[in-house]
Specification:
heterotrimer; B: 250 residues; alpha/beta; C: alpha/beta; 10-stranded mixed beta sheet; 6-stranded parallel beta barrel; 12 helices
């Protein structure tokens, strides 16, 4: 049986299991239809031209892994920002782990989507937000919607500033063979509220895991959302990460994506600006080795006047790795005085590495400042020589220059501990031990 | 030459000029000073005919003619020149081509033929050397990638080429080091004749050490609150603008 | 008061196509429709050898199985390919020895266009091969060229006179199955130009062809083939104007360039097909396939000024097969009213140390849509490939759109690829600055647009640059002077 058929056939039993309490039954069955019609995306589609999921779809996956496994704390410690106090919503093989989590309802909600979907007191919220920004015509999102039942649910009430970062951690143990996980996160940041969120997907040992994740973020007026995605999974893990962000006027949302690992990673990051004076920031560092493949697909839809967006993606590619960047800026006719900038710079270190980049501008307003630029090149040999002539070994010199290359993305990370952690991750990837932080 | 009476002007319904009176005669140099936001740049924009500003009251006469209904280029054709505080970049259009186009447009308006290429070249050489402008500079795109000093020097070069009746220098000293300031001031002074007039708009007194004004006016809250000779500028330098503010408030 | 942007917009909208007239020359036209028999008949009419007939038939069979592309960012009513007549030739079949013999009405047409042949001959030293409704009717300067061994003639003539050259190169860069329109062209091409520059020869003059559409209900399917043998050089100019028509006209040309080792081809186009009226009715569909192949140390340079056509679909490309070969693309595309343009280039880096440059300037006014679509591909063997691309868009008014779709695919770690794009409008501050210097708004816009386009205009041969500027002016008339 093809995996698609399995996904379709499993639905009836799934629906029965959820029962009548399910708030989003209608949405699910619509989404199922979309997925049935479109199926998995193929390279024939423009949006998936450079990324094929075929290699993932050859085998069977367990859709609903059973209850929580015991995991050793120090086995997973590295996946957390353990040095500082954070709220945590942790899942093991898609199931919530109360032991590892640190949730709250005290002044803000950091809890579980499963609770929000089934408890009556959340019904209004779910009706308002759930599935309202996610593109349910997109088949991977539709597939997620069909089976969405667990993930993080975060609500920051008006004018509340979350006093510590929130970590959303999805762990996969590999104890049950190949698994297909579909976490769903819903994040609502009300007027003038502020929050920092770190999201991570991590396998604990080599095994086949595909995560098809959907996150919806709503930033109301004057809200401030600072979101970080750390993608440093094992080479057997793949991730299709779909993030949809709706912004109201005067809100600022920034998303940093650090892609350092995994087999195939596809990031669909969509910003919708629904008010004036919005600021959207999309930044990323992609540092790949071996046969890793990362595809960033971004959309910024400027639908109102006087807004800004800034995109800055850096990629460094070694061995046979493949990097894809497809960034689209859409400026509606009424979105006058838009300032939209996009930059994608890539360094190819090895002969077999590939980079495909396709920055797009679609502009229907005349009074705008939009620009994009992309480069593909190598580390500057002269600079490399200069460093080496000062006694810095080649590996360190290369690392130093890579750091310098990616630095302006790192600079805007607002959580110092996280910045340190990412610095360390980069150093590890580059196989050096730099005695400094940037 | 220029007579401004009870001039009121606003931008986006915000009043910036609240009753300006000013009389500039041929051969005179007037300095207009004032703190930031007092309306100095607005005054120059309004005289030059920037349509972002709306004149709500009063009149501006130039050579006896009311210029209220005139477009910016008509005013330019009559001899008003504005040296911009922030000169605009026009990519792909060289300084030479731009000044040729401008000069010939003005000649056409006056009913003259285009200036012959050789004469134009000669004039460009003459005026650029007056301001110490390199010939390479002339083939660069207008104001694109120019340093602050280069932009201002280019403005004065254009003024030298166009030979206006009334030159308004809007913060021409900002962004200039002392050497550049001298070059620009020498250029302005060299162009002075008994038939033209200059309005120098500045925040600081230092430019007035090099371009000596006959009159100094202090603009505050969209009004000229004090007029005098160059001694007034010195006094302002010494006492600062707070002195004026207090005096006005009192 | 001053000339406002509103007034400018109105003028732009009300600007009619200046060259919308129709020359009444007797023509022989085939019945409408397309089938194998028609293809055979076209070939027969032109007394083509058997291999050519078969080549056309193969192309026709391929075309029948293909579908019209949907991916460009343009919308239009697809032509009914069975409602088009695929052959139309002026009745007088004999070639002219001199201009005196040419139909005076035709000469009159050219006079209206301001491109009198006499004048052209004298002033510019341009040999002109006029394609008037698909068949060459006049060729000049042939003798001068013949002395150097340069062949410059209609493709029909070349098929007769130089079959070995045509057979070797036709379809070698754009194979019939390349795309829908190339296949159609291969099956039914009526005429076009052929040019061969022998080894080591520098062509002493700019070669030029004027294409025109001039017969109600006929499509136009030129085929151009330029072969520059080793160490030779040629500059080729192509210009188009077309009379006004109510129904849409299809234009599906194919241009193939072959630059052998150390050869250089410069191919310049000024395109001003009828763009349709200001309601968006009528106008030419311009679906052109242009591609060149570069051998070792050779260079192909495409320069285009696109101001016409209702719909343009065009990507002059370079296959940089040889080591140290160079590809260039310089383009200005102006769209106004309801025009749609989807244009750009492909630079395929195959050889080592290959270089390419792309400079694209899009100007959109009225309700038009202007898209840049380009591909820069660096293959795994293309060591030390370099590309620089710059795509700038200028928007005039708020009902038009500018789009940029660059594809960059790199499979080699020694490649250096840079792409930049910007979108802007003519700033009110720029206009005011010019006004203050005494330059009126209309002239100011002309100045700014010229400055914006300068990098590309500079690439045109002198005698062509003037015409290009004229067409820019016409397209944005009222604003560009």
């Amino acid at each position: 049986m093809e995996f698609k058929d399995k996904l379709l056939d499993t639905y009836i039993a799934f629906e029965e299991e959820l029962g009548p309490k399910d708030s989003i039954q209608k949405l699910r069955s619509q989404a199922l239809k979309t997925f049935e019609n479109h199926g998995f995306p193929s390279k024939k589609q423009e949006a998936w031209k450079y990324t094929s999921l075929n290699s993932l779809l050859q085998s069977d996956y367990l859709l609903f892994p059973k209850s929580e496994k015991a995991v050793e704390l120090n086995q997973i410690k590295h996946a957390f920002l353990y040095e500082i106090d954070t709220y945590k919503v942790v899942f093991i093989d898609g199931v919530h782990s109360p032991f590892l989590s640190d949730t709250t309802h005290d002044g803000l909600d950091v809890c579980l989507l499963s609770a929000a979907l089934s408890k009556p007191k959340y019904k209004k919220l779910i009706d308002t937000y759930f599935g309202s920004v996610a593109d349910n015509h997109e088949s991977m999102t539709a597939l997620n919607t069909t089976y969405a039942r667990e993930g993080a649910y975060i609500y920051i009430p008006p004018s509340v500033v979350a006093e510590k970062p929130i970590e959303i951690i999805h762990l996969s143990t590999g104890d049950q063979g190949a698994v297909w996980l579909q976490p769903r996160n819903l994040i609502v940041v009300d007027r003038n509220a502020q929050v920092q969120i770190v999201e991570r997907h991590q396998s604990l040992k080599e095994h086949r895991v595909v995560t098809n994740c959907v996150t919806e973020i709503f930033a109301h007026q004057e809200a401030l959302v600072d979101y970080y995605k750390i993608q440093n999974d094992l080479d057997s893990a793949s991730l299709i990460d779909n993030t949809y962000i709706a912004q109201d006027k005067n809100s600022h949302v920034s998303v940093h994506t650090f892609s350092f690992g995994g087999k195939i990673t596809r990031n669909n990051l969509n910003f919708y600006q629904n008010g004036e004076h919005i600021n959207s920031t999309l930044k990323g560092i992609t540092l790949l080795q071996e046969k890793q493949h990362v595809d960033h697909y971004t959309l910024v839809h400027h639908a109102q006047p006087n807004c800004e967006s800034h995109q800055d993606y850096k990629g460094i590619f070694s061995d046979r790795s493949v990097g894809v960047f497809n960034g689209k800026i859409l400026v509606d006719k009424i979105a006058q005085k838009t300032n939209a900038f996009q930059q994608n710079n890539n360094i190819i270190l090895d002969d077999k590495a590939k980079v495909n980049t396709k920055p797009q501008l679609e502009i229907f307003a005349d009074d705008v400042r939009c620009s994009h630029g992309c480069t593909i090149g190598q580390l500057n040999q002269e600079a490399l020589f200069y460093l080496r002539s000062r006694g810095i070994p080649k590996k360190e010199a290369k690392a130093l220059m890579t750091y310098a290359f990616a630095n302006n993305v790192l600079e805007s990370v607002q959580i110092p501990t996280l910045k340190k952690k990412i610095n360390k991750l980069i150093a590890n990837k580059l196989g050096v031990n730099l005695g400094f932080d940037l | 030459m220029l007579t401004i009476e009870n001039l009121h002007a606003e931008i986006e319904e915000k009043g910036i000029l609240n009753g300006i009176d000013l009389d500039v005669k041929a051969g005179e140099v007037h300095a207009i000073m004032g703190p930031n936001g007092s309306g100095k740049s607005t005054l120059s924009s309004v005289i030059a005919g920037n349509e972002d500003y709306e004149v709500t009251q009063g009149s501006v006469l130039f050579g006896g003619e009311d210029i209220h209904e005139m477009s910016p280029e008509e005013r330019a054709h009559r001899g008003i020149f504005l040296s911009f505080q922030y000169p605009v970049e026009i990519p792909g259009v060289s300084v030479t081509n731009f000044i040729k186009t401008a000069l010939n447009a003005q000649r056409k308006a006056a009913g003259d033929e285009d200036m012959p290429a050789a004469a134009m070249l000669k004039k460009i050489r003459e005026k650029s050397s007056l301001l110490g402008i390199d010939s390479k500079f002339l083939s660069r795109s207008l104001n694109q990638g120019f340093s602050g000093g280069e932009k201002k020097r280019n403005e004065i070069f254009q003024m030298a080429m166009i030979e206006p009746k009334l030159a308004i220098l809007d913060e021409t000293d900002s962004g200039l080091d002392i050497d550049a300031l001298k070059i620009v001031a020498d250029g302005v002074n060299a162009l002075k004749t008994p038939n033209n007039a200059t309005i120098v708009i500045t925040h600081y007194q230092r430019l007035l050490d090099y371009i000596i004004p006959d009159f100094v006016h202090v603009l505050y809250n969209g009004k000229i609150v004090k007029s005098g000779t160059k001694e007034l500028a010195k006094e302002l330098e010494a006492k600062g603008y707070d002195w004026i503010k207090k005096e006005v408030a009192g | 008061m001053a000339y406002t942007e509103e007034e400018l917009k109105k003028e732009l909208e009300s600007k009619e196509y200046e060259y919308g007239f129709y020359t009444d020359i007797e023509a022989e036209t085939f019945p409408v429709g397309l089938n194998e028999e028609i293809v055979r008949k076209i070939s027969q009419k032109k007394q083509e050898p058997e291999w050519m007939t078969e080549w056309r038939l193969d192309a026709f069979r391929v075309w029948k199985e293909m579908e019209e592309p949907e991916w460009p960012n343009v919308t239009y009513d697809k032509p009914d390919y069975q409602a088009i007549s695929y052959y139309s030739a002026p009745k007088k079949k004999d070639k002219y020895e001199s201009l005196d013999e040419v139909d005076p009405e035709l000469l009159e047409t050219f006079n209206k266009l301001g491109i009198s042949l006499d004048e052209q001959k004298k002033l510019a030293g341009v040999a002109v091969d006029i394609v008037m409704d698909s068949v060459s009717v006049a060729t000049t300067f042939k003798e001068t060229l013949a002395e150097k061994g340069i062949i410059f003639c209609s493709i029909s003539e070349a098929i007769q006179e130089h079959p070995e050259l045509v057979r070797q190169y036709i379809g070698s860069v754009v194979p019939p199955k390349d795309n829908y329109f190339a296949a159609l062209n291969s099956a039914v091409f009526s005429d076009g130009s052929f040019c061969y520059i022998p080894k080591g020869v520098q062509c002493p003059m700019e070669l030029s062809t004027y294409f025109r559409i001039n017969q109600a209900g006929t499509g136009q399917f030129e085929r151009t083939l330029v072969v520059a043998d080793e160490s030779s050089y040629v500059s080729y100019l192509e210009g188009c104007t077309a009379p006004s028509r109510d129904e849409n006209q299809l234009h599906a040309a194919v241009v193939e360039l072959i630059a052998l080792d150390r050869a250089e081809i410069k191919y310049s186009t000024v395109q001003n097909w009828y763009p349709g009226n200001k309601q968006g009715k009528g106008g030419v569909f311009n679906f052109v396939t242009k591609r060149g192949i570069c051998h070792n140390h050779s260079k192909i340079s495409w320069t285009q000024v696109e101001t016409g056509s209702a719909v343009t679909w065009k990507y002059p490309s370079c296959i940089l097969k040889g080591d140290y070969s160079i590809g260039e693309f310089y383009s200005i595309a102006v769209t106004n009213n309801f025009q749609q343009a989807d244009t750009g280039t492909k630079m395929i880096h195959l050889g080592k140390n290959t270089r390419s440059t792309i400079i694209s300037k899009g100007i959109s006014a009225g309700k038009s849509q202007n898209s840049y679509r380009g591909l820069v591909q660096v293959n795994s063997r293309a060591t030390n490939a370099r590309n620089f691309s710059q795509c700038d868009s200028l928007l005039m008014g708020n009902d038009c759109g500018a789009h940029t779709f660059p594809y960059i695919e790199t499979q080699n770690n020694s490649a250096q690829v840079e792409h930049e794009a910007t979108t802007s409008k003519i700033g009110e501050d720029q206009i005011f600055y010019c006004n203050q210097r005494g330059i009126d708004t209309e002239k100011a816009i002309a100045l700014i647009v010229n400055g914006f386009s300068k990098e590309v205009l500079n690439k045109l041969p002198m005698e062509f640059a003037v015409e290009a500027q004229k067409l820019l002016e016409i397209s944005l008339e009222g604003s560009v002077g």
